[in-house]
Write a structure and sequence with these properties.
The complex is a heterodimer of chains A (228) and B (148).
Chain A: H1 3-33, E1 45-53, E2 58-61, E3 66-68, H2 69-72, E4 76-82, H3 89-107, E5 121-127, H4 135-145, E6 150-153, H5 156-166, E7 170-174, E8 182-187, E9 190-193, E10 198-203, H6 209-224
Parallel strand pairs in A: 4-5, 5-6
Antiparallel strand pairs in A: 1-10, 2-3, 2-6, 4-9, 7-8, 9-10
Helix pairs in contact in A: 3-6
Chain B: H1 3-29, E1 32-40, E2 48-57, E3 63-69, E4 73-84, E5 87-92, E6 96-98, E7 103-106, E8 111-118, E9 127-134, E10 139-147
The chains are: A alpha+beta (228), B alpha+beta (148).
Chain lengths: 228, 148
Amino acid sequence: MNALTIKFGLTIATVVLAAVLAGSFVATIYREQNSRGTLLPTQGMTVLPSPKQITAFSLTDHEQHSFDLASLKGKWSFLFFGFTSCPDICPTTLSVLAGVRNKVADRTPALKPAAAAATPMQFVFISVDPKRDTPAKLGQYVTHFDSSFNGVTGSNSELGNLARQLGAVYELSATTPGSDDYRVFHTSAVFLVDPLARYHAVLSSPHDAETISKRFLVLRELEEGPVR
Amino acid sequence: MRRREWLLVGPCVALLSVAPQLTLAADDDHRVTVRDAWIRESPPGVDMTAGYMSMRNNGTRQQVLIGASSAGFGEVMIHRTTEKDGMAAMMHTSQIELAPNASVAFAPGGLHLMLMNPTQALRVGDRVNINLQFQGGLVVPFAFEVRK
């Protein structure tokens, strides 16, 4: 075998390898396009391939009622983790969610037989800063954005319990040990839990009411059938 | 020309040589323009909110925003919400450089003026003056409108 043959062989091998790679790439895209996860465009909302059942947790809402696993059942829940001393991303997200609620309500026809009604929605702001966010403060805060919004908090262990189940990350870091002056880092995602209390989809920022409401309506119709 | 008259020439020449610079400085002062300036109405019980705007440098020199102040707030800081791996964090930003003909947007989820300890309750429609301070002593005052 001379040098020319080896060179020719290598060229052929490279071409074949490139073709195989390109083929598998196209096949992957094709497969993904047909999966449930991308049934909805992925921008803004990612639907979990299989919804994940949430297990028991125990928090308290701003009216001092228990907010637990049962509170998630029978409703589509939009959950957002934040804190009230947050000037930018929390008010921005809650304003968007208020817009989502209005848009979805506008596009859900008023129904005659109650049985055919779409499952209701609830919007829950979960404060990861229970030390500063008392129920009274939380109530004033969330209802400023929409009177139906619910503010929830609880012990650090129970907040961690629910956050872990959703993969929601947050962190409180003291600037001065022991003082009330600390920073809160938190996920900017909104978690969508379905009426069976299963973690169903995640909405990633930047949030926009038009996109979220449209995709939520498609998702709800997929799960429950069209609202007539 | 008598001797006394000659004495006036000096100051005149001095004034003429300074005048163009004065004009230039005054022009540049007006070359940072602000648009769509608004403050988010803060929910009751919350002593902080954020201000947003679009800022443009129409001048020929770079301008550097180094701070802001307002009689309406105890403290005003330039902040930026950043996101890394889905985590939102707020960072203090010491300065914003604005090249000639460049614009910068202060918008929800990004750059914002963090406004702390309002001196009075602000309601939708109120206007609050905020002084934008630039390197070199330039101060651009602008009325921000309170919106929901």
